[in-house]
Design goal:
There is one protein chain. It contains 5 helices and 3 strands, in the order H-E-H-H-E-E-H-H. It has 123 residues and is an alpha+beta fold. It has a single domain, classed as Winged helix-like DNA-binding domain superfamily/Winged helix DNA-binding domain (Arc Repressor Mutant, subunit A). It has a 3-stranded antiparallel beta sheet. A hairpin with a 2-residue loop joins strand 2 and strand 3. The chain is globular and about 70 Å long.
Length: 123
């Protein structure tokens, strides 16, 4: 019998499913989506599984961006964007696909928003 924790994790597999349909996403975004689709877990658990996924090469760091703002801890935040790694095995979870299809529709700009953007460029 092998000692220690098992290598596979249901939480990490669910994160792989989210990244499969999302393409890339930062940690907080993935944690929020996870808790809306699957049974709730702590943010700490999602971040742990993102880091563990990097070690097992199921998840890779796509890019790191610094964002300026007025945060409680300072004026800068570092966002790590994650994507699927070479050892990822997404199964094509149906509820993740459905959730992300509605999420992308909600985030797409409406015709009115595109009109306002064009109007601002004319000024």
């Amino acid at each position: 019998m092998v000692k220690g924790r098992p290598i596979k994790s249901k939480i990490r597999q669910n994160i792989v499913e989210i990244l499969h349909y999302l393409g890339e996403g930062y940690g907080y975004q993935v944690a929020k989506m996870y808790n809306e689709i699957f049974p709730s877990v702590t943010q700490r658990s999602v971040y742990y599984n993102l880091q563990k996924g990097i070690l097992t090469k199921e998840i890779s760091v796509h890019k790191i961006e610094e964002e300026k703002g007025d945060f409680s801890w300072g004026s800068m935040v570092e966002k790590k964007y994650y994507s699927l790694g070479k050892n990822a095995e997404p199964k094509g979870e149906k509820r993740v696909k459905e959730y992300l299809s509605t999420w992308k529709k909600e985030r797409s700009p409406s015709r009115f928003t595109s009109f306002v953007d064009r109007w601002k460029s004319w000024r």
